[in-house]
Specification:
single chain, 238 residues, Rossmann fold, Arc Repressor Mutant, subunit A, 10 helices, globular
């Protein structure tokens, strides 16, 4: 059972999302929050598998919320010490974050992913896409739609403050199959889609992704996407 925390500043939208998810077998909504502080407290108390968060929060507040949820060891926000849960020496389990974003906010994807978000989905996605994305993020994979992948690359290239990803090795160290997997990841494909394309098991895809990340010195799929473009393995469409 995948547990979900719904975060949205509009009560009607929270109700709609909660109703939709509660009707889906294998999903359970364990709580909801209207802002960043509530989301941080609820996530720490409820430990949901996935935090479904709308990006309508102010950019700074959204990024701060993502950091505290994705890295609970950092502790609660200092501005709400009276209500934030206490953190003990035992590391808190981090929930994975799926952002719902408007098309005009696609350029913020890079900052949110660096902060710890597990994926992005446009807020006009249909219910089936949303359910599938929640399951993918809960399983530990990333969700980045093809349109957001392009916006992500554009944002990376425009940010002068983004430091180059340290490389353990270049693309020449990858096997042919690993290069195929990396190209598919950079195109925004899920592990299931890659498995179907290459006629291999999803578990084998996971192994290839792990090997790629280790070889290029990346910690997450989003960094692998950046590597694929920077190294010239794939090029953005004109």
């Amino acid at each position: 059972m995948v547990s979900v925390l719904v975060v949205h500043d509009q009560s009607l939208q929270r109700l709609a999302l909660r109703t939709l998810l509660a009707a889906e077998p294998g999903l359970t909504v364990v709580g909801e929050a209207a802002d960043g502080d509530e989301a941080i407290r609820a996530s720490a108390a409820l430990r949901p598998d996935v935090v479904l968060m709308d990006s309508q929060l102010s950019r700074a507040d959204a990024l701060d919320t993502i950091r505290h949820i994705a890295r609970p060891a950092a502790g609660p926000r200092t501005r709400t010490p009276a209500v934030a849960p206490a953190f003990t020496g035992e590391a808190a389990a981090a929930s994975r974050i799926l952002m719902l974003t408007a098309p005009e906010q696609e350029a913020d994807a890079w900052a949110a992913l660096r902060a710890g978000a597990g994926g992005f989905l446009l807020n006009d996605a249909d219910p089936a896409e949303l359910i599938a994305a929640i399951r993918v993020v809960a399983a530990g994979d990333a969700v980045i739609t093809p349109g957001l992948t392009r916006a992500l690359i554009d944002a990376v290239r425009q940010h002068d403050t983004v430091r180059p990803l340290p490389r353990a090795s270049g693309p020449g160290a990858l096997t042919g199959r690993e290069r195929d997997v990396l190209i598919a990841v950079a195109a925004g494909w899920t592990n299931a889609e890659i498995a179907q394309w290459l006629h291999i098991a999803p578990t084998t895809v996971k192994t290839h992704v792990s090997n790629v990340l280790a070889k290029i010195g990346a910690r997450a799929r989003v960094q692998a996407v950046t590597f694929a473009y920077e190294s010239g393995l794939i090029r953005p469409a004109a």
